[in-house]
């Protein structure tokens, strides 16, 4: 029996253009857990509106695997690379994947949104999205909460009532470091 803890983590895979669905299906067929968030929107084709479900993060799919055994993932048609720094893959935080999964599963109106570094960190305190955190921004008079996937430098925006959002106070704690004993310091204190 294998008692070794699993080293599988979520990673973002950069893909060839418009290969998101087929690559996710191929990876699932190989036994990997994949996540391809999509959203519904209207597209005009030949003068008619039709509903389409494009990827929320075009050019990317999320896949859960062991980074030390990534060769079968990289050899999958459509995969360009595992997102990271240089040749070192960096996992996406489980909390970020869970937040996006929650937003997509609730079936609210979502849309791709540019990544934001500035803004107030907030949390939803009521309803189906209770506990989801994001960045609050103003948009045409309405308030929106933006749940960011920082590794991809992309975000997802959804409209939500102001009354269910509360700010998160970030507290920075600086550990107290004792000063080294120094003869100069002792004479100055005495």
Number of helices: 4
Largest sheet: 6 strands, antiparallel
Number of DSSP strand runs = 14
Helix content range: 10-25%
Query: What Rg, in angstroms, do the CA atoms define?
Result: 22 Å
Q: Please state the overall shape, judged from the principal axes of the Cα atoms.
A: globular
CATH architecture of the largest domain: 2-Layer Sandwich
For the terminal residues, how far apart are their CA atoms? 65 Å
Number of domains: 2
Strand proportion = 35-45%
Extract low-pLDDT stretches: 176-180, 182-190
Class by SSE composition = alpha+beta
Q: What's the CATH class label of the largest domain?
A: Alpha Beta
Task: Give the ordered list of helices and strands.
Answer: EHEEEEHEEEHEEEEEEH
Global mean pLDDT: 80
Give the neighbour order of strands across the main sheet.
Answer: 9-13-12-11-10-14
At the fold tier of CATH, the topology name of the largest domain is Alpha-Beta Plaits
CATH superfamily of the largest domain: NusG, N-terminal domain
Describe the structure.
- There is one protein chain.
- The protein has 4 helices and 14 strands.
- It has 190 residues and is α+β, with helices and mostly antiparallel strands.
- It has helices at residues 20-29, 71-74, 94-105, 183-189, and strands at residues 8-15, 33-35, 41-45, 48-52, 60-66, 79-82, 84-85, 88-89, 110-114, 120-124, 133-139, 142-149, 154-159, 165-167.
- Residues 176-180 and 182-190 have low confidence and may be disordered.
- The radius of gyration is 22 Å and the shape is globular.
- The chain has 2 domains: 1-92, Alpha-Beta Plaits (2-Layer Sandwich), CATH 3.30.70.940; 93-170, SH3 type barrels (Roll), CATH 2.30.30.
- The strands form 4 sheets. The protein has a 6-stranded antiparallel beta sheet with strand order 9-13-12-11-10-14. Strands 2-5-1-6 form a 4-stranded antiparallel beta sheet. Strands 3-4 form a two-stranded antiparallel ribbon.
